[in-house]
Each structure stands twice: as C-alpha cells, then as structure tokens.
Amino acid sequence: MKLLPSIAFNDFSGSAGNVTARKTGDKTVLSTRTKHSRKKTPPQATTRCRFSDTIRAYSRITEDQRQGWVLLARVFGIYYSPYGYTVISAPNLFVMANTYRKMCGRPLLADAPFEMIRSRQVAYDDLWLDPEHILLTKVEQSADPDEVLYVEMSPAFSPGVSECANKTVFLKAFSTTDWGDVDLTVAYLKRFGTPLKFGQKVILRMCWLNAECGFVSRCNTDVHRVRETSIIHGAFYYPRAKVTMDQITPLTEHVECEGFDYELSPGSKFTSNSITLRYLNLYLLSCDIPHNGLTEAFYDEQSFQYARVTSSIDYLIQSIWIRIQNSTYKRIRFGYMDFSLRRQLETFGTYYVFN
C-alpha cells in the first residue's frame, strides 16, 4: 500500500497510485484497490467482477441491519465450503448470501435472514459430455419451490489435472428441469465460447441451492473426460421425440392451442405432456390441430388422459383422448370421452401410448 503524507494527513480527496482518500467529516478514509484473494482463471475473475455492486451495498445498509448480519455471522461460526473450513465475518456473510441470491435471480437482501441453509447433492441417472451435448438425465426434482439447480463447470487446462474444484465457474441456476432433463450445452457455450473436445477433461460441480438464503456446501464435484457415449451407462445419445408449439399451427377456425409440450419416452411407449386448449366459438366433441411434420418416432400414437377445465368451476375433471397422426394425415386430434363439453381444457402428466 502506498501511503503518502499528502494523502493521509492533509485535506485531500482523490487517488494516487492504488490508494484512494475520501474526506468524511474530520476523518480521511484510505482504501486500496481490491484484489482477488487467491489465484483465479480469467472466467472466474470476470464472474467475480460482476458482483462489485453487492460488495458496495453493505456500506449502504442501516446500522440495525448490520447488527443483524453480525449476529447471524456469530451463529454461523465456522462452516465448511468446497475450499475448506472458513470463519466468516458479517460483511463477508452479507456478500456471500447476496451473491448466491443474485446468481439465482433474486434481488439484494438488506435484512439478515433467520438462517443460512446448506446446499445438498443432486441425484441423477446419466450424463452426456460430448462436443454437441452436455446433458443430465432423470434429475431428481426438488420438492422445495425455493431450491434451484446450481451448476458450475470448467474445462481442465491440462490433461493431467484432476484436483481442480477451485477452478470452476458459475454456469447457470435452473429453477426446473425439462421432464427430468437439464441441458447445459447453451449455458456452457455462452460462458466459455468454444465447444468441448473429445479426450478433454471437464470439472462439474452442482447442488440444490436455496435461492432465498442458501450457500454452497454439500455438492457433487466430478471430473470426467469428454467422450462419445454417456458417462454412467455408456449409452449413445438420441434426441427425444418431442412436439412443441413451434411445430404446430396453434390457431385454427374453432380452437386455439395456448400451450403444447409433448414428449415420447424412448423404449417403452409413454408420453409426458402438458397441453392447454381453448375453444373459440363452439362446443365440439373433437377438434384437429395441424402440425408441420414430425420425426420418424411419430406415426400414429394415441393416449387416454385426464384433463381439467379452468378454476371458475373448480377444476372439473374430464376424460379425453389425444391422437398424433404423422403418416397420411398431419394432424393432432383431441376428443372428449365423457361428453362434458367445456370451452377450455388443460392436461398434463405421464400416460401409456397405444398404436
């Protein structure tokens, strides 16, 4: 630190070198340019600089709010992080809590929470790491609506590196899964700019994190090599057979489709879907929605499902059938089985599929 008499002891406000003087009443406060506490990669440095406003926010809260963080830090005591045991102060606890909140899309928290909640590990079935796909499958969904799937990743900078958990960079916080799948491909390319290469090592850290007042403690930390087959079961990747809003004509003469997410499970014939329809002018026993042509996985699939109408009549339960035709006809047919005609229906869940 550069200490100049003209800065420290005269009526001076400004900067000289790495030292800044700020006149506050009868006092002159000196500060230096902050530095990272340990070695870091360029992506890590970029990520940390995004949270400088969180660091400055501690000086703007009230004294009562600071005392709340001081008390929470005393209760918090020594905690274990992925980098070892740490004793935390009130300012650092404020920054830690609000940094995780910002990563999860939450606003800054000035008042100390009642407690800080540890993260927990993630259960999943398989993982693909190849140049085109970074994908987790059958991720166990959290029952806590405040929890998000917090993911950090980093490519290893040397083939011999295996102990490098401190090199990972925050990738994304996922509030939900896509029918049990979590696709990290786009988030990884956005963060690191280049796709993976076969044989390259990748570090992956993830956990279920409470977005309101959580911190990373218990988590999955793994190092895998990029390869053509999946990491756990050694299976090749096949894209899921899906129908979405982009593949249909949502508005016809008699009906409007407000939401369409339909998926066929590989192997056994099951469908997981979520569909919302609204009839425009008539009560019909059946209706058709055209599609733009689907993959070969679809030919003539039919499922019998439960549906409900809007809350204005207390979610009346109905029985419907859905038929996807992808041969002579290019259409999706909906029909009622119980003749309880309503203007709107919503169906979702997992059901058997018949040909």
Q: Which descriptor suits the 3D outline?
A: globular
Radius of gyration: 27 Å
Q: Biggest sheet, in brief?
A: 4 strands, antiparallel
Secondary-structure element order, N to C? HEEEHHHEEHEEEEEEHEEEEEEEEEEE
- Major beta sheet, strand line-up: 10-9-12-14
Q: Can you name the CATH architecture of the domain at 241-352? A: Sandwich
Describe the protein.
The structure is a single chain. The protein is of the alpha+beta class and 355 residues long. Among the domains are: 1-33, no CATH class; 126-225, Immunoglobulin-like; 241-352, Adenovirus Type 5 Fiber Protein (Receptor Binding Domain). The protein has a four-stranded antiparallel beta sheet with strand order 10-9-12-14. Strands 15-16-17-22 form a four-stranded antiparallel beta sheet, with no helix packed on it. α4 crosses α5 (90-103). The chain is built from six helices and 22 strands. Residues 5-9 have low confidence and may be disordered.
List the defining traits of the structure above:
single chain; 355 residues; alpha+beta; Immunoglobulin-like; Adenovirus Type 5 Fiber Protein (Receptor Binding Domain); 4-stranded antiparallel sheet; 6 helices; 15% helix; 37% strand
Brief characterization of the structure:
The chain is an alpha+beta fold and 355 residues long. The chain has helices spanning 5-8, 42-49, 52-57, 63-76, 90-103, 185-192; strands at residues 14-16, 19-24, 27-32, 78-81, 84-87, 117-118, 126-129, 134-137, 147-155, 169-174, 182-183, 201-210, 214-215, 220-225, 241-244, 255-264, 270-279, 286-290, 300-308, 317-326, 330-336, 344-352. Among the domains are: 1-33, no CATH class; 126-225, Immunoglobulin-like (Sandwich); 241-352, Sandwich (Adenovirus Type 5 Fiber Protein (Receptor Binding Domain)).
